[in-house]
Design brief:
With about 190 residues, the protein is an alpha+beta fold. It has a domain at about 25-150. About 20% of the residues lie in helices and about 35% in strands. It has helices spanning about 5-20, 75, 160-175, and strands spanning about 25-35, 40-45, 50, 55-65, 70, 80-85, 90, 95, 110, 120-125, 125-130, 135-140, 145-150. The strands form 3 sheets. The protein has a 5-stranded antiparallel sheet. It has a 5-stranded antiparallel sheet with strand order 6-9-10-11-12, with no helix packed on it. The protein has a 3-stranded antiparallel sheet with strand order 3-7-8, with no helix packed on it. Helix 1 (about 5-20) packs antiparallel against helix 3. The longest helix has 18 residues, at about 160-175.
């Protein structure tokens, strides 16, 4: 192999050996159901696109202000749910999507069988409301506020630094001017 072909081949091999993926970015979404009903937060891999559900989330929390009852991702994934378990969030528009599991329209729910524990939140033409089944409270809310931010992916991993340094070295080596053996370098 000639040196001009050898350099990219060595670079590709180094990329495969040394390359590590950079830290994944995470989108954190905060939401508030009115000023006095409930608030929550969830996070997911910022690379996800389309409509996501509970299975796509890294974290989830929902706390009702009046009762202090809180629900998290462990609760949502614990099983023993009735037909009302749903969550739909559009990553493009950063909005909740209304769905109708079991015939009831909702933006998020997770209600244990027997309706003794869980939550149900709706935001559609029929109205805005949240139900905390642990206390049997149904609360209306006047606004749904959503804020989000992306964190992470700013600092490369050590393997990525090694790859970058190796890449600079290979680029410099391929661009370095070669001196032929019969040439005279420098003049007096």
């Amino acid at each position: 192999m000639t040196r001009s072909i050898l350099t990219p081949v060595v670079g590709a091999i180094l990329a495969a050996v040394l390359g590590g993926s950079a830290a994944a970015a995470t989108r954190i979404v905060n939401f508030t159901l009115g000023a006095d009903v409930a608030s929550g937060e969830f996070s997911y891999d910022a690379a996800l696109t389309g409509v996501i559900g509970y299975d796509d989330l890294a974290t989830f929390s929902l706390t009702f202000f009046e009762t202090g009852n809180a629900y998290d991702l462990s609760f949502v994934r614990s099983g023993d749910f009735s037909a009302y378990r749903g969550f739909s969030f559009d990553t493009a528009s950063l909005t909740f999507i209304t769905t109708a599991p079991g015939g009831a329209t909702q933006i998020m729910s997770a209600i244990k069988n027997g309706f003794g524990e869980g939550f149900f939140v709706r935001d559609d033409a029929g109205g805005r409301g949240a139900t905390d089944y642990a206390d049997g409270r149904e609360l209306a809310f006047d606004s749904l506020e959503i804020t989000s931010r992306v964190v992470g992916a700013g600092v490369p991993e050590p393997a990525t630094w090694a790859l970058m340094i190796a890449g600079f070295g290979l680029a410099g080596a391929s661009l370095r001017r070669r001196v032929s053996p019969g040439s005279v370098v420098g003049a007096a």
